[in-house]
Design a protein that fits this description.
The protein has 319 residues and is an alpha+beta fold. The chain contains nine helices and ten strands. A hairpin with a 2-residue loop joins strand 6 and strand 7.
Amino acid sequence: MPSLLPSYRGWDLGRLHHFLGLEVQYLPDGGLFLTQQQYAKDIVHRAGLDQCHVSPTPCQSGVKLLKDSGRVLSDSEISHFRSLVGCLQYLTFTRPDIAYSVNSVCQFMQHPTDQHLSAVHRILKYVKGTFDCGLTFGRSSPPLGNTAAVALSSDSSCSKSVSLHAFCDADWAGDPNDRKSTTGFVILLNQSPVSWCSKKQSSISRSSTEAEYRAMADTTSEVQWITHLLRDLQVSLQHIPTLHCDNVSAISLASNLVHHSKMKHIEVDVHFTREKVKEGSIVVQFVSTRAQLADLFTKGLCSPQHGLLCRSLMLGDQH
C-alpha cells in the first residue's frame, strides 16, 4: 500500500476486517478466517426465524423438490421468497456447505410454492445453528497426497509447496422435474477451497458416465483458469493439478483416446478434459466415494457425512 499511495490517491486504512458483509479475522499462525456471521444473522432475522429450532443439515437427504407440489405463494410471499434466496446466494461466498441447497431452491424463482419456501426455511435453520462457521486459509496448509486421506486425515504437517487439487462429481438424472444431472466441484489450493460450484447441467445425459464427464470438463476449465491466475500472480505450482473423480468409466474416457468412439454423441467441447490430460496440464485420479468432497455439491447428505466433508473443506468455527 505505501508504494501505491505516491502514484494513486487513496488512504491506508490498515488491515482489512470488514468488506461488504465479509468478516476477516487474522489467525496467530498468519492465516485468515473468513466468515459472514453478522450477515447470516441478519438473514435469519429478516425471515423471522430468530426463535426457531436449528436443523442439522441444510436439506433432507434423499428428498428432491418438485416443481408443481404444494400451494402457490401469494405475490407478497413470492417477493419474500426471492429476497431470502438472493441473500442466501451471497452467503455461499463463505459457505460452500449450503451451495447445493441454495442452487436447488434457485430453480423455482418463477413460481415458488409453500414447499419451496419451507426448503428455504430449513436452510436458514441450519445457518442459525452454524452462525460462527467460516473458511480457514492457513498460511501454510498441509499438502494433499493420498486421496483417501484427503477427507479423513488430520495430518497437521506443513509445507511451503503450493498444490492444486480438484474434486468433481455428478448426480445423474437427479432432478425429477426434467431428469437433468447436477454438476458439483470444489477446487483446493493446498487444503483450502478457493472455488466451488453446484449447478444443473444444460442438457440431459444418457448415462452416468456422460454426466460425470461433463462435470470433469467444467472442473478442468475452472482449474485451468485458476492456474493461469496463479501464474499471473507469480505463484508457481510444485505439481501438476490433480482432478479427483469417483467414476472409473469417466476417468478411462479422459485418459484413453480409444474409448472416445463410444461417446461421439457428447458435444466436442466436452473432450476438453482429454486434451488437457494429453498435454500434461492436469492429472486425473480415482477417489473413493467416501472421500469424494464434491458429494457436498450434488446431493443432500446425512448429518455425519455432511459434517465430515465440511471439516475436510476447512469449514467450521475459528477454534
